[in-house]
Design a protein that fits this description.
The structure holds 2 protein chains of 2 kinds. Chain A is mainly α. Chain A has helices at 2-5, 8-27, 33-39, 42-71, 85-94, 101-113, 128-163, 168-182, 185-199, 212-241, 244-251, 256-268, 270-284, 288-293, 300-308, 312-340. Chain A has 2 domains: 1-40; 128-340, Orthogonal Bundle (MetI-like fold). Chain B is 31% helix and 20% strand. The chains are: A mainly alpha, B alpha+beta. At the A-B interface, helix 5, helix 7, helix 9, helix 10 and helix 12 of A face helix 1, helix 2, helix 8 and helix 14 of B.
């Protein structure tokens, strides 16, 4: 918990002091005129607007999630063995889950604003922030590898299929991609475990610890996304290759290689860039199926199980993390877009 | 810095070379994880434990771990018998209501502090304090005035029948003779906790960095959704007898993963029967690793007796008699579960379970007709409610077909998720509900007590004055044989005369381990397998 490691007030004081210092530097001329000009760039205004938008979305989503969880049938403290009503009341009071929904939401926001994500109701000695801090890096490690795999494999095979349009290579790659999209993770993952861990014995079958245990989950996580990226890349590349400027480039006598990778790729990659934002948010926060099958102590299963357990604050915390990552990456993608294609203007 | 695809995909790809590179990479990866030395026993424990605080836990997954860290006055041995633990002996008064436990000499907490009789008294007091929010506090209600103290009717703890006349004596006065009390003193809720540590660290006292225990093991690490690591406790009074010095408990929720870990040598023992899936049982049966045993658990259907049509006893009898239990265990559960018409499993010494509604299609139809629904005519739409699970769904579909075939009644299936299912049970918002009950101690009372009028776990709206009277009489009865007869009469009301439930089968426990490598593991009626008794051959 932030609140327990440092005083709540301290955080705000630090923040306030930081902002104050920034203003002073700006006003007293510590920032060079050139740097000032760069910082006045409309891009920063765009990013600032995006941050404001994110905060608004955050308020709506977090409040909505909390209210939906409280309206869902069943108590977070329910068990197969009936809890006596006095004890259940006590637990509800302890976590401020008694009283009207507005009061409950008020308490939740009061804690959130102090940087306290609350306690898990199921895992009674752990804070939500602690669970996320523990589980997210594990999901992110696998997610980063999967992201790199999916994008690399997607770009390379997609471009290759487009360059070898209507050949056996193209058809074989696209058939593989189709299979990758169609086969769900709960089929691919146990199959991969069976072949590479049990039959061949090359990799550990499940668990956490050591690089070797990252391989199977990362590949299984990446497979469907790689396939999708590949098809996206191929379609986009084919479209770009039909455009006038490509004909011009070819007419200039440029090597096919240069045409493809200097001129076409830069434009053809755009749809993939816009897809990369949500893709990254998805893979970095973990997958329920892949992490359960490979027994990875990541964040993925919490997205589903915390809802089933009515673990209200944990649901809120995971939603918050996902939202922040998603919106940040989408903003990054939008900025990246304009840098890649000068025709696109966002500011 | 653009690279050409041609460089990545040379026209003549050399497959052997690629394979070599891959093999090299694999061996490099594998060597990274090999540094950690392996625990003497790695067992698959099931889902992530919710807590390790004996006052707050209620599940088997948590119980197994708590028994490693804490030890009660008595404990269950590997074969399921009650044996002396923190108490070396005890005296029972002739009326069966006063127990005097004599603690061993020089008992110590794992931090070196002496463990005294008062630690037990204060730990039990903590369970009974309403502010603790103990979910299992009612297992202490057999102690005189414990219920009154918990419910706030009396705030004077000296009235509660537990005291420590000196550092090595715990004296307990019970509200009624309780022949299974020595099982209770081994139960998680009765375990002693280090109160100074609890006070100092609050809810986080069970963390590895704080926790102090008196059991055979110490908690070394608790990795969320990964594993808990235990090491033998050198201060445990029988430390010399603990064979496995380092033990890991794995958190695994997927059955295939658990079995994969077992067969690749990353786990030695699977303790959670839910992880051994019915679909792989046929294959496992050929092996010596699979161990199946009967234990105290019953799978049954509840009827909501508070509303039509199941407010009519004959309708409930008809529905119960129309279930072919044998077909269900042979087609769906596949673990060799004994089909049953009784609620109490026949595993309790001296107790013969009552006979309930055996499969009898003719009789079932006759009862339904007598209740006003000849050949199922005009029978209202009702539904079987069950929590999401492949096995529950399979059983419900099978029973749905049986009721259609035998009674000519169409019932719907209503699958709901766990928390919603519990709420519907509590609010009597169902017609028929899949249910189960696992005994906490080997006595019929752990099952039959559920159905006392208005009891929290009744969840059927059913109440029967005769049943309540028989259970109350059994509570007062000192003679064990006569007590069992009273309980059997009560069970007869519950499963035959006026049944609010239809028992279907008794659970079997399942363990997966190599009997050539490990010993000291037995199938026991409570599905309890103390880790400290397991040894490597």
């Amino acid at each position: 918990m932030f609140a327990q490691r440092r005083g709540d007030a301290e955080i705000f004081l630090d923040l306030g002091f930081g902002i104050f210092l920034g203003f002073e530097f700006w006003n007293l001329g510590f920032v060079s005129p050139a740097a000032r000009a760069r910082l006045r760039h409309p891009m920063w205004a765009f990013i600032f607007r995006r941050v404001l938008q994110m905060l608004a979305i955050l308020v709506v989503v977090v409040s909505g999630t909390f209210l939906l969880m409280r309206l869902a049938p069943g108590s977070p403290f329910a068990q197969e063995r009936k809890l006596d009503p006095a004890t259940e009341r006590l637990w509800n009071e302890r976590y401020h889950l008694d009283g009207s929904l507005t009061v409950q939401l008020g308490y939740y926001w009061k804690n959130l604003l102090r940087g306290d994500l609350g306690e898990s109701l199921k895992y009674k000695n752990r804070g939500v922030a602690e669970i996320i801090a523990y589980a997210l890096p594990k999901s992110a490690a696998i997610g980063l590898i999967a992201l790199a795999l999916a994008l690399t494999a997607g770009i390379v095979t997609g471009s290759l299929a487009a360059a070898r349009h209507n050949t056996a290579v193209d058809r074989a790659l696209m058939l593989t991609a189709l299979a990758g999209i169609c086969l769900p993770a709960f089929l691919i993952a146990p199959l991969a475990a069976l072949v590479f861990a049990i039959w061949l014995g090359w990799l550990p079958v499940a668990g956490w610890g050591g690089l070797s245990r990252l391989v199977l989950p990362a590949v299984c996580l990446a497979a469907p996304y790689a396939a999708y990226c590949s098809r996206l890349m191929r379609t986009s590349m084919l479209e770009v290759l039909g455009q006038d400027f490509i004909r011009t480039a070819r007419a200039k006598g440029l090597a096919e290689r240069t045409v493809l990778y200097r001129h076409a790729l830069k434009l053809a990659i755009l749809p993939l860039v816009s897809y990369a934002g949500p893709l990254a948010a998805n893979v970095l926060t973990g997958s329920m199926v892949v992490e359960t099958i490979f027994n990875i102590p990541g964040l993925g299963p919490f997205f589903v199980n915390s809802v089933l357990n009515r673990d209200v604050f944990l649901v809120g915390g995971t939603a918050l993390v996902y939202l922040v990552i998603l919106v940040t990456l989408n903003t990054a993608v939008d900025v990246g877009y304009t840098l890649l294609d000068k025709r696109i203007r966002l500011w | 810095m653009l690279v050409t695809v041609q460089n990545y995909f040379p026209k003549k790809t050399s497959a052997p070379a690629l394979l070599c590179v891959f093999a090299l990479a694999v061996s490099l990866f594998n060597s990274c994880g090999a540094g950690r030395d392996r625990a003497a026993l790695i067992f698959v424990n099931g889902p992530e434990p919710e807590s390790l605080d004996p006052a707050l836990i209620s599940g088997q997954v948590e119980g197994r771990l708590a028994y490693c860290l804490f030890e009660g006055l008595t404990r269950l041995a590997a074969d399921g018998a009650v044996v002396p633990a923190a108490a070396e002996r005890w005296d029972i008064s002739p009326d069966g209501r006063t127990y005097t436990f004599h603690l061993r000499e020089n008992l110590r907490w794992s931090d070196g502090a002496p463990l005294t009789a008062n630690d037990f008294v204060q730990s039990w007091r903590r369970v009974l304090e309403p502010a603790t929010g103990a979910v299992y506090a009612d297992v202490l209600f057999v102690i005189e005035n414990a219920r009154q103290y918990h419910d706030g009717e009396s705030r004077d703890f000296s009235q509660v029948g537990v005291s420590a006349p000196d550092d090595r004596t715990v004296s307990v006065r019970l509200a009624a003779p309780t022949p299974y009390f020595l099982y209770l003193t081994s139960f998680t809720t009765y375990l002693p906790v280090p109160l100074t540590v609890v006070e100092r660290h609050g809810a986080r006292w069970i963390r590895p960095e704080h926790i102090v225990g008196n059991g055979a093991y110490l908690l070394r690490a608790w990795k969320l959704n990964d594993r808990l690591e235990f090491a033998a406790n050198p201060r445990y009074w029988a430390a010399a007898r603990v064979n496995l010095k380092r033990v890991d408990a794995l958190t695994v929720t997927n059955g295939n993963t658990a079995v994969n870990l077992y067969f690749t040598g990353q786990a030695d023992l699977i303790l959670d029967r839910g992880l051994i899936l019915p679909q792989i049982l046929a294959g496992l049966r050929q092996r010596r690793d699979l161990h199946i045993f009967n234990f105290l658990g019953t799978y049954f259907y509840r009827f909501n007796t508070s509303r039509a049509p199941f407010d009519h006893p004959l309708v409930r009898r008809a529905f119960s008699a129309a279930i072919d239990r044998r077909a269900i265990v042979e087609k769906i559960t596949l673990g060799g579960e004994p089909p049953t018409t009784a609620l109490v499993p026949g595993l309790i010494n001296g107790y013969t379970p009552a006979d309930g509604m055996a499969f009898n299609p003719g009789q079932a139809r006759a009862w339904l007709a007598a209740a006003g629904y000849p050949d199922g005519k005009n029978f209202p739409r009702v539904a079987i409610m069950y929590n999401a699970s492949q096995q529950h769904a399979g059983i419900a579909v099978e029973i749905q077909a049986m009721w259609k075939r035998v009674l000519n009644v169409s019932v719907e299936l209503r699958q709901v998720e766990w928390t919603a299912y519990l709420q519907a049970l509590d609010r009597l918002d169902y017609d028929i509900a899949r249910s189960s009950w696992i005994g906490d101690y080997p006595d019929p009372a752990t099952f039959l007590g559920c159905f006392i009028t208005g009891a929290g776990n009744n969840r059927t709206g059913w109440g029967n004055a005769g049943y309540d009277r028989l259970l109350a009489a059994a509570d007062r009865e000192v003679d064990p044989a006569r007590r069992f007869l009273l309980l059997r009469d009560a069970e007869k009301i519950l499963v035959a005369d006026n049944p609010p439930i239809a028992p279907i089968f008794h659970y079997v426990g399942m363990l997966l381990y190599d009997p050539d490598k490990f010993g000291g593991i037995h199938g026991t009626p409570l599905d309890d397998h103390p880790i400290q008794d397991i040894y490597r051959k």
